[in-house]
C-alpha cells in the first residue's frame, strides 16, 4: 500500500514538475527576472497561424501605431504570455504588444526587455487560439477574427464542437455558430465589413438567411444604393422590411409587438439577442 501511495504521489507531482521545468527553462534564458521574466523582445517569435488578428486593416494598424507610441514612452505595462518549443520562445498572448514594441524599436526606442509570464502548464495550440477570445479585453477581436480562431481550433481538434467552443470562450452556441457561418461569406463581404460599409452582425445575418451568393448580391446592392444616397454604411432598414424584422424578433421573444416600439428599437433588440 505504501508503494502504491508513493507511485500515486509521483503521478500527482509529475504535472508540477513539468511546470517547474518549463519555468526553469524560461528563467534560464530570460535577460533578468523579478516579479516577471524580462525577455529581449527580439528573441520572442510569433508562431504562424496562432493569432487571428488581421494587422492589415486600418483599425488594427491604427491600434499598433497607438501602442507603439505608448510603449516608446512608457514601456510595456501588461506582461506578454509566452511559451517555449525547443530553444524557441513564442508569444501566446500579446501579439499586438510585441508587434508594437518592435515598431517602436525600429523607430529608435531604447527597449531592451519586455515583461513576460509563462503560460499555464498543459496548454496546447487549441487552448492558445481560443484563449485569445478571452484575453483580448483591451481590443476585442472582430467577428471575422473570432471566426478564424474558431475554425482553426476545430481544424486542429476534430472532436471540438460548437458547444465546446461556446463553453470555453464564454459565449452561447448560437453566437459561435453565427460567427462560424459568417466565415463562409465571400471575400467581397468580408472586405465590406473590414471597410466599415456594413456591420459584421448585419452581414452575417444576411449571409445566413440568403446564402453566400445571394446574400453577397443583396449586400452589394444595398451598399451601392447607400452610396448613391450619400451614406457611408448599409443599415438594416435598407435590407429588411418592418414585417420581416418583427417576425424575426418575435421568434426569439414569443410575444406581440408592444405599442410605440420603433423599428430602430426592434433592430437593436435583434442584434442584442443574436450577439449574446
What features would you highlight for this structure?
single chain, 276 residues, alpha/beta, Conserved hypothetical protein from pyrococcus furiosus pfu- 392566-001, ParB domain, six-stranded mixed beta sheet, 6 strands
Please tell me about this protein's structure.
Strands 1-2-6-4-5-3 form a six-stranded mixed β-sheet. It contains twelve helices and six strands. It has helices at residues 2-29, 58-74, 95-106, 125-135, 143-156, 162-169, 173-182, 187-194, 200-210, 212-228, 242-253, 263-274, and strands at 32-33, 37-39, 44-45, 80-85, 88-93, 114-118. Helix 6 packs across helix 7 and helix 11 crosses helix 12 (263-274). The termini are far apart. The chain has a domain at 2-122: Conserved hypothetical protein from pyrococcus furiosus pfu- 392566-001, ParB domain, CATH 3.90.1530.30. 58% of the residues lie in helices and 9% in strands. The protein is α/β, with parallel strands linked by helices and 276 residues long.
Question: What is this structure, in a nutshell?
Answer:
The chain is of the alpha/beta class.
Please indicate the percent range of residues in DSSP E strands (runs of 2 or more).
5-15%
Number of strands: 6
CATH architecture of one domain: Alpha-Beta Complex
Q: How far is it from the N-terminal to the C-terminal residue, by CA?
A: 52 Å
- Structural class, from secondary structure content? alpha/beta
Radius of gyration based on Cα positions:
23 Å
Specify the biggest β-sheet.
6 strands, mixed
Q: Give the overall form.
A: globular
Helix content: 55-70%
Please mark out the parts with pLDDT under 50 across 5 or more consecutive residues, or reply none: 1-9, 14-19
How are helices and strands ordered from N to C?
Answer: HEEEHEEHEHHHHHHHHH
| Count of separate DSSP helical elements | 12
Average pLDDT over all residues? 79
> What is the CATH topology of one domain?
Conserved hypothetical protein from pyrococcus furiosus pfu- 392566-001, ParB domain
Strand order of the largest sheet: 1-2-6-4-5-3
Amino acid at each position: 500500500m505504501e508503494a502504491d501511495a508513493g507511485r500515486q504521489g509521483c503521478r500527482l507531482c509529475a504535472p508540477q514538475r513539468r511546470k517547474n521545468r518549463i519555468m526553469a527553462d524560461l528563467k534560464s534564458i530570460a535577460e533578468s527576472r523579478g516579479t516577471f521574466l524580462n525577455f529581449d523582445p527580439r528573441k520572442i517569435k510569433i508562431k504562424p497561424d496562432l493569432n487571428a488578428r488581421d494587422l492589415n486593416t486600418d483599425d488594427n494598424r491604427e491600434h499598433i501605431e497607438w501602442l507603439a507610441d505608448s510603449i516608446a514612452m512608457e514601456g510595456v505595462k501588461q506582461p506578454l504570455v509566452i511559451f517555449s518549443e525547443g530553444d524557441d520562445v513564442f508569444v501566446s498572448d500579446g501579439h499586438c504588444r510585441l508587434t508594437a514594441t518592435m515598431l517602436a524599436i525600429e523607430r529608435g526606442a531604447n527597449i531592451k526587455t519586455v515583461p513576460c509570464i509563462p503560460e499555464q502548464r498543459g496548454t496546447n495550440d487549441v487552448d492558445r487560439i481560443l484563449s485569445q477570445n478571452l484575453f483580448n479585453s483591451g481590443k476585442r477581436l472582430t467577428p471575422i477574427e473570432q471566426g478564424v480562431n474558431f475554425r482553426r481550433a476545430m481544424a486542429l481538434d476534430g472532436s471540438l464542437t460548437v458547444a465546446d467552443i461556446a463553453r470555453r470562450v464564454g459565449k452561447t452556441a448560437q453566437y459561435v455558430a453565427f460567427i462560424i457561418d459568417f466565415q463562409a461569406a465571400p471575400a467581397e463581404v468580408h472586405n465590406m465589413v473590414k471597410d466599415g460599409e456594413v456591420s459584421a452582425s448585419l452581414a452575417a445575418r444576411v449571409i445566413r438567411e440568403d446564402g453566400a451568393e445571394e446574400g453577397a448580391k443583396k449586400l452589394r446592392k444595398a451598399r451601392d444604393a447607400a452610396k448613391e444616397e450619400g451614406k457611408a454604411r448599409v443599415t438594416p432598414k435598407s435590407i429588411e422590411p418592418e414585417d420581416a424584422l418583427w417576425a424575426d424578433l418575435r421568434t426569439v421573444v414569443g410575444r406581440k409587438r408592444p405599442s410605440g416600439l420603433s423599428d430602430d428599437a426592434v433592430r437593436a433588440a435583434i442584434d442584442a439577442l443574436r450577439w449574446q
